[in-house]
Amino acid sequence: MKIGVLTSGGDAPGMNAAIRAVVRTGLGLGMKVVGIKRGFEGLLAAEIVDMTTRSVSDVINRGGTLLLTARCKEMTTQEGQEKAAGICKILGLDALVIIGGNGSFMGGLMLAKLGVNVFGIPATIDLDVDCTDYAIGFDTAINTGMEAINKIRDTSSSHERCSVVEVMGRNTGHIALWCSLAGGAEEALIPENHSNDESVSEKENFAIDTNRLIREIVENRAMGKTHNLIIVAEGIGGSSKLAREIEKVTGIETRATILGYLQRGGSPSAVDVMHASMMGYQAVKRIAEGERNKIIVYRDGKHTSIDLEEGLAYQRPYDSEFYDVMKALSV
């Protein structure tokens, strides 16, 4: 058998560990493994390299992706999809392993409908692939965020400031919720709590109750808190504007910090390396067993596979318990 592997979309810590697992598992099963550089863009340009055990030596703890990544507009067109599927067939690939998020898997689904056997491995710090309980890169992003937040809190306490920290997450609040609970924040502003309208996509359309937030800050000060920490999800945005408004109304010195791409870099945590290794192994093992068009997921404490199209259609319901616990412990 011959399989290809690529990384697509935003990079995530642990992608290299997943590539390593795919390559070494495949070679161990007697397969030929090729790496495709720069995601779908590289596939369309036929940027193909033969992978050996040495190709993935000393990469397990490196951030980023050795195969590089890119976003490819051409793959959103029927012409681009047909071209990519044709290249997979010319290469003689029995399966294509895609390491990425929802956008990457949508591209993979189009290829699957054109006859390519596609396996997806969820790798996104945003944890927004709803069909899996875990995605590679999330734990590292949380730990990076917490390291920054802890340092911000130290200086914020010294100056008796209010800190507004914006974390990544695209249109979901998973990173913000985890950082809020683990960081002892007073509030987490996340898309899930501020809009029930699926058509709302613009950040400025999210209704934030600034009056309630400011009232909580003032009440916390009255109880003796020397600083306040507000975590804002990327999907909400507006952190600098919010900080100015808090300072204007309360007179409390307020600073906004946007962590941005800091959370996408760095060596993967042990948790991410473990999931990446298990998912890469599972993908190749299931390809060898004849499975077709699946996403490797982590559910109920186990790594398993589900149908690619079914997985992309699944929408995880929002559970407010995490937020409720954070609020209860912030008092």
Structural write-up:
The structure is a single chain. The chain has helices at 15-28, 39-44, 78-91, 102-112, 138-158, 174-183, 191-194, 210-222, 239-250, 270-288, 308-313, 321-330; strands spanning 2-7, 32-36, 48-50, 95-100, 118-122, 162-167, 187-189, 228-233, 254-258, 294-299, 302-307. The longest helix is centred in the middle third of the chain and has 21 residues, at 138-158. The protein is an alpha/beta fold. Strands 3-2-1-4-5-10-11 form a 7-stranded mixed β-sheet, sandwiched between helices. A 4-stranded parallel β-sheet has the order 7-8-6-9, with helices on both faces.
Mean pLDDT: 94
The computed structural class is: alpha/beta
Low-confidence stretches: 196-205
Whole-angstrom Rg: 22 Å
Question: For the terminal residues, how far apart are their CA atoms?
Answer: 59 Å
Note the total helix count.
12
| Silhouette | elongated
Helix content: 40-55%
The biggest beta sheet is recorded as:
7 strands, mixed
| Total E-strand runs | 11
User: What topology, given as strand order, has the largest sheet?
Assistant: 3-2-1-4-5-10-11
Strand content: 15-25%
Sketch the topology as an H/E string, one letter per element: EHEHEHEHEHEHEHHEHEHEEHH
A few lines on this structure:
Helix content is 42%, strand content 17%. The protein has helices at 15-28, 39-44, 78-91, 102-112, 138-158, 174-183, 191-194, 210-222, 239-250, 270-288, 308-313, 321-330; strands spanning 2-7, 32-36, 48-50, 95-100, 118-122, 162-167, 187-189, 228-233, 254-258, 294-299, 302-307.
